[in-house]
Amino acid sequence: MIVKKDEELIKACTQGDHAAFDILFKKYARPLTFFIDQILHNRNRAEDIFQDTFIKVLENAGKFDNRYKFSTWIYRIALNLCINELRKRQRENRRIYSQNMDNIYCNILDRIPYLTTPVDILEKKECANRINDALSYLSVSKRTAFVLKFYHHLSYEEIGEIMNCSTGTVKSRIHYAVEKIQVIVRE
Questions:
Q1: 122-172: per-residue pLDDT in tens?
Q2: What's the 3-state SS for 131-181?
Q3: Could you give the CA distance from residue 36 to residue 30 in angstroms, rounded to a whole number?
Q4: Residue 41 DSSP class
Q5: What angle do CA 71, 72, 75 make, to 5 degrees?
């Protein structure tokens, strides 16, 4: 089986190739839903927004510009839908973030190899929960940059494309996000 690039798959989608769509859908289901959940802090809405993202992908597949990466295009669509959702929540005066992050572990902490005892694992989980709670205090732009960098391991350039800003702005947002998270976690 020949593995096709995302950009080739989206082109195949425009020609009615349902298998190509299925490949893209399965490839992005988990990371994109996780990204959306990190922005919205609501798993149910994250799944809905993920579905909406792929509807937009299908509707706009013919407009995809092959000069760009498909991954940055789809993350930008998802981010726009998240921003719309957050605006809608604010208009409706609903609570912006829910507390359903208890079982999500921070990938940053997963890189620390020496935490192996049950006590270490518990401390690691508690720290991850504090970081996830701290994310809710960040602005959407800082939270998005932080999540894309440390949870999805994207480059500054890719994040800049997704967020439609310069790499310098991305670095600044991540810097301030890390500073604020450190202050909140220490409290």
A1: 677 777 778 878 888 889 899 999 988 888 888 999 999 999 999 999 999
A2: HHHHHCCCCHHHHHHHHHHHCCCCCHHHHHHHHCCCHHHHHHHHHHHHHHH
A3: 10
A4: -
A5: 85
85, 84, 23: which is closest to 54 by C-alpha?
A: 23
Q: Three-class SS of residue 1?
A: coil
DSSP H helices, 15-139, are 18-40, 43-60, 70-91, 107-110, 118-135
Q: What is the DSSP letter of 99?
A: S
Q: How far apart are CA 61 and CA 55, in angstroms?
A: 10
**Which pLDDT score is estimated for 94?**
35
- The pLDDT tens digits of the residues spanning 91-131 come to 664 333 333 333 333 444 444 444 456 666 667 777 777 88
Domains and CATH numbers, the chain: 1-97 (1.10.1740.10), 101-135+137-187 (1.10.10.10)
Residues in the chain: 187
Query: Measured between alpha carbons, how far is 2 from 124 in angstroms, rounded to an integer?
Result: 41
| Token pair belonging to 75 | 């993350």
